[in-house]
Write a structure and sequence with these properties.
Blueprint (H helix, E strand, L loop, with lengths): L6 H12 L6 E5 L5 E4 L2 E2 L6 H7 L7 E5 L4 E5 L5 H7 L5 H7 L4 E3 L4 H5 L4 E3 L5 H11 L10 H11 L4 H24 L6 H15 L8 E3 L19 E6 L11 E6 L6 H19 L7 H18 L7 H7 L26 H5 L26 E4 L2 E3 L2 H10 L8 H5 L6 E3 L2 E5 L4 E3 L8 H8 L2
Parallel strand pairs: 1-7, 5-6
Antiparallel strand pairs: 1-4, 2-3, 4-5, 8-9, 9-10, 11-14, 12-13, 14-15
Length: 458
Amino acid sequence: MNPLFISNIYEERRNKLSASFSHGIALFLSNNESPANYPANTYRYRQDSNFLYFFGLSIPNIVGVIDFERNRSLLFGDDYEIDDIIWMGNQPKLMNLAVEIKVDEVRPYKELASFIKNKPVHFTPPYRSENRIELARLLNRSIDELSPSIELIKKIVSLREIKSYEEIVQLEEACEIGVKMHTIVMKYCKPGITERELYGLAEGIALGMGNGTSFPIILSQNGQTLHNHEHNLILEKGRLLVMDAGAENVMNYCSDYTRTLPVSGTFTKQQKEIYEIVYQANIAAIANCKPGIQNIENHKIAVTVLTEGLQKIGLMKGNMEESVALGAHALFMPHGLGHQIGLDVHDMEDLGENFVGYDDTIKRSEIFGWGALRMAKMLIPGHVITVEPGIYFIPHLIDIWKKEKKFEAFINYDKVETYKNFGGIRIEDDVLITKDGHRVLGTHLPKSVVEIESILKP
């Protein structure tokens, strides 16, 4: 356990949760091992983030319980036996682990069902099939009858979204790994190298310095596909390489950066024009990050900068405010400005995106583009968010909108046609909301045209 994460932290988190409930129990199932292709060959283990937040143990086959009525915490699980120890080596006793995190009691897993019987049970939405099945068994319900506790979800979001000093230290560490991942790719980005080689270099950094990547690396010359996980191409002169990647540190905190690189070492005139628009949108949105501002306003700032820039080079036209309000810009940026980040790269979204990024004061838009914004609500100190505007030329989307004559008053389709082989550009940073404004986390990762070209020039 990291020295910063003394046992009191987990106890305090559980106590804060308990303070909001007068009856019942909260049930937190661990994630179990997941076979890759046969039972003994598993994917890299990753604990459930809510379990990590309240119990801090990164081991499978256990359940954490917070008993609100008696103000106590319990672990249900079984110690490893000799058949496991032969293959895995000596393992700590569950009771010893419980002492480290100040859990009051440890019981065998077989006693869990009887312990929770006839008690009001609060649980979060299960996102793994095996946990859905196990919850249904424990609660003696059908899978379709499982109803996560909205009250528990809202309270967890209110706790986890405000990052403590200790968590910010971990996020900074994850960001430093992320910076190194991108820096190594910048160093080797040149014609002739394969996307797969660059992917391997970046993932090697993440594995060598932490728990690996915080999500599957997006690294592609086909950046018009927003989450492109194919890495089969050889880098070619004149193309752009989009890399969206981050790391998870040993305490499971995540980072998330995106940079777009000219494979030739310098941007073409056309590439530079588009890049500068995205860069200015990134800078403007970050500059406005501060407490008391709804993040939807930062999204509006970003897409307004994009629209203005696209109008200047003739790709868009018409009344800018009306264009932005109606969502005409979404042809070029169909996603939102960003999301929260913490123990998950899209923090807490297993609890429900609308509970994380929205609240009673703001509801999700039904307009294409605007509705894709994951984090819209008021920013407060302790929030950590991504800021990631982009411009993409997605041929299939262009064809559909053009055929439908959608937003013809705002889009110059004839000129857009000449960009259909362009690809895409995205620039992303991780931003902490502070008492007085904001701070971009991690060592500065080059992103201006001058900085990028100075690193990539042959």
